Amino acid sequence: TFTAENIVGHPTFKVIADHATIGVYQLKIEEVAAELTDLWVHPSAMGRGVGRLLVEHAESTARGLGCTRLHLASDPHAEAFYLRLGLRRYGAQDASMDHRPRVLPLLEKRL
Asked: Are β-strands 69-73 and 88-94 bridged in parallel, bridged antiparallel, or unpaired?
């Protein structure tokens, strides 16, 4: 969920096709680093380049704001996607819930 307050405070962009939002991302700017806090692609749009477009736009936006690094905590199922786009894994974050183990890959890219 994106709140109005969150959108005003953080660069947020979406892709629209046929009057419907099919992808969205949001950045959190931290001095010279940008955190990709959210990137979502509608399942019907997966595999059509929407995710790549969003990541490339996020990189360009971050560079334009003076950032030299883009980083994120990735869903484990999306890690391969980000690695194909040139990000690299530098660590992991425990995100276990309700006694279910879950580890999020920490990824980054120099801009």
From this structure: unpaired
Structure tokens at 99: 């006694």
Could you read off the pLDDT of 7-41 as tens digits, one per residue? 999 999 999 999 999 999 999 999 999 999 999 99
Asked if 76 and 96 touch (Cβ cutoff 8 Å), the reply is: no
Q: Is the pTM of this model over 0.90?
A: yes
3-class DSSP string for 15-56: EEECCEEEEEEEEEEECCEEEEEEEEECHHHCCCCHHHHHHH
Listed in sequence order, the residues at least 6 apart from 29 whose beta carbon sits closer than 8 Å to its beta carbon are: 10, 11, 62, 65, 67
Q: How many CB atoms lie within 10 A of CB 70?
A: 24
Provide the 8-state DSSP code for 6.
Answer: H
Cβ proximity of 106 and 73 under 8 Å: yes
The span from the CA of 1 to the CA of 99, in Å, is: 25
